Write the structure tokens for this entry.
Amino acid sequence: MSETVSDIVELAPDDRAGFDAMLRIYQMAIEPSEQKPASEIAAIVGNPRYSVLVLRLNGEVRGFAISYFPEGDFWLLEYMAVDANLRSHGLGRTLFFAAKAAADARAPNAPCVLEVDLPKPDATPSDDAARRFRFYRALACLRIDGLDYLLPLAANGLPPPMTLLVHGLEISRALPKGELARWLQAIYRDVYAQPADDLRIVMMLSPIPDPVPLAEL
């Protein structure tokens, strides 16, 4: 790859060109049913509860990572994507660890939570969901076993079947069910403006044992 990473920096609220470039990648890379309106993404930039990192190659935005920080003991890597023409060059891994470094500065040792599509049983290796699972497996992410995650978005159709992954925990760690409940409540309330007592959270938690098992991908 002839292009080189010039920087990974926080997107400035007044960087309109940078935002527009990020938004183009977002709208191309993220499943439409999992997208928020452009106005909501714009409102995230500069929000103190968020970090919006952009990766520049030769000065142009070619990838991004959006992280949410609740008042709690985890952080959510809400969206991350690289320009489709530049995948498989290690840029996603570079972005992930840049996001983690930024998170460690704000919430030392807090685990990262990720919302991820489940690959279909007959998915081919080139399938986007299967490719993402391989990517996160290589990063040593674990799956919250038994959780059928319900993404509370509906503006662009029903989201596909999803799960939650976690990075920064050992597979042997017992994750208390109450801790997972707090994570889900914070995500629903603060990221998607849904009530913390949303019945979908009850539905997700009900079949899961306590403590919650973590599984390899």
Remarks:
- The mean pLDDT is 93.
- Residues 91-106 form the longest helix (16 residues).
